[in-house]
Amino acid sequence: MIFDTHGIFKPYEHALWLGEVMGRVRGDPITTALAHPTRRQAYIALCTVDEMSTVQLQEAVGVDRYNLYHHLKKLASLNLVENHRDEGRARWWRAADRIDLPELLQVNPGAAAQSTVTLLHSEVGDRAAITLHLANARDQIGAKQFIQELAQLYGIELELPWNFIPDELVLYSKER
Question: Looking at the whole model, is its pTM more than 0.90?
Answer without folding.
Answer: no
